[in-house]
Amino acid sequence: MCRVAVFASVLARFVEHTKCSTGLLGWLCPSQPSLVPRCFRMTQRFKYLASAFLLASALPGAGCGRTPLDPFDVPEGSVGSSVPDQRTSATSSPTPPPTTTTTSPTPTPTAIACVPSEETCNGVDDDCNGRIDDVRALACAEGGFQYCVAGKMSDCPKRCEACLPGSERVCQISYCTYWGVESCAADGKAFSFCKEQRVPRECRDVALRFQDSPELEQCCIDNGYCCLDSHDLDRDGDSGEMVGRCDEVMCKP
Amino acid sequence: MQALSHGLVLGAITIAFWLVAEPVHAQSCAKPDALEGFPAYGSAGVPLNAILSAHYFASAEYDAEPVVLEEIGGERREALGSFNPSEGLLSLDPAGFLKLGMQYVVEWPALRGIGSASRGKSLKVNFSVGNQSDNAPPDFPGIESVHYRLERDQDGCAETVQDRFVFELKLGQPSDETSNQDLTLVVFQTKPNSSESPVPVLTRSFPSNGRVEVSQRIEDGLGNVCFAALVRDLTGKVSASGDRVVCTKTVKPPFFQGCAIAFGRAPRAEVLGFALLLGGLWARRRARSV
């Protein structure tokens, strides 16, 4: 449908630009010069028709836009191959993200006899018992276990990834109060953006005087808040970390 | 006058409710509730050597609250659990308390949240013990396939829209010596051709429909993303399924999949009006040109 609209657009523009030139009229009405005015009207009508068709095809559907990303079901048996998008698209848009599913190849029995050795986490059935990497889990100091996964020992589990769900840290903004708060998401994976708040009394004067500044960050730390180190006060090159009293914000056990 | 005073009172109550309600909302987004029990409510055939546990929300903090285990119509025992804050898992080893064929109820305590005085929900689980111990690890074929999508949802805690890749994993059917119930699923995200260790991204009960979703931040789920999974039974033994890795390749949003015409979305009155406008213009043009 989009292609039809584009074609109509091109056609309309062509007629527009030719302005019923002698050449076009001569091609349309080669042998009867007396019919030129009528032919002119015909080409004008054609131009409006083409324009109307273009508008009619474009407006009702709101034209081209972002389409939702549907899950691409991988049919059974298509393991290891990418599945092309089966839906029609009206323009030559880039292919949407396919879902590829691959599994690591399970070692097939070979003609060479398995020589048993101590099982280690290496992606190989060392002890020839038919199970790959069936090694004992290692206890983590802070709770939980490390397991052998894909030939490597996994990390120890963590309470959360970025922050404790629902916790807050203080941040600075460049306008009005210069003081804000970022809230940790329910899944503990990220903070919200910095939402402006009233400056607490103990830092009000600092905020008025120095605005978004290292001084205000220091005031935040000194008054027992968990603060975003946006001015890198600890000079470790990381301005995205937290400083201050962050025991109830950080992902520590 | 009376109506005015009633209105003022109502307004004051509304303002007071609004002032009180806002912090309550912030607190309630991450309540340290007990989420699920292992064994689950109503489980039958629980092995004699089972270790009982309950999964709490990440913000839960254990402060030596007792776990109550009671044999229905028999002995009642209170004991301190062992809390693993990394997984939010409170465990109790009954050590000989479970008897063949008997029914029990275990009460997992309500825990406080970190930096919070309020407690979350407790959990009461009834289960019955089977006639044998579990001495073998469970079998699990691992993850069968992975599909992904992008989600932009309003987060209850952050009160902002959060972008996440959601990976839907189709799981193989596990089996265990005593019962296929009460297995814990642990999913890991791995990076192919990398020296980085696999990272545990999800720990929960094995889903009855064999499907589970893992959500990741955009930066953590971009490009080649691989998953592996294992199951853990009630005795702590795990399946040897960590070598079965399933991968997908994600694309950074925003996604653009081409043009789409949706005629159904246009209001009919507007289409009709547009058609009339076109007709009018056409008639006018025709009248002028004749």
Architecture overview:
The complex is a heterodimer of chains A (253) and B (290). With 253 residues, chain A is an alpha+beta fold. Chain A contains five helices and ten strands. Chain A has helices at 2-18, 22-28, 36-58, 201-210, 214-222, and strands at residues 102-103, 138-139, 145-146, 148-149, 152-153, 168-171, 180-183, 195-196, 226-228, 242-244. A three-stranded antiparallel sheet of chain A has the order 6-7-8, with no helix packed on it. Chain A has a two-stranded antiparallel sheet with strand order 2-3. In chain A, strands 4-5 form a two-stranded antiparallel ribbon. In chain A, a hairpin with an 8-residue loop joins strand 6 (168-171) and strand 7. The longest helix of chain A is centred in the first third of the chain and has 23 residues, at 36-58. Chain A starts with a helix and ends in a 9-residue tail after the last strand. The model of chain A is unreliable at 1-12, 14-33, 57-98 and 105-110 (pLDDT under 50). Chain B is an alpha+beta fold and 290 residues long. In chain B, the strands form five sheets. A five-stranded mixed sheet of chain B has the order 2-11-9-5-6, with no helix packed on it. Chain B has a four-stranded antiparallel sheet with strand order 1-3-8-7, with no helix packed on it. A four-stranded antiparallel sheet of chain B has the order 15-14-17-18, with no helix packed on it. In chain B, strand 14 (184-190) and strand 15 (199-205) form a beta hairpin. Mean pLDDT of chain B is 86; it is low at 15-27. Chains A and B meet through helix 3, strand 1, strand 4 and strand 5 of A and strand 12, strand 13, strand 14, strand 15 and strand 16 of B. Strand 1 (102-103) of chain A pairs antiparallel with strand 18 (246-250) of chain B.
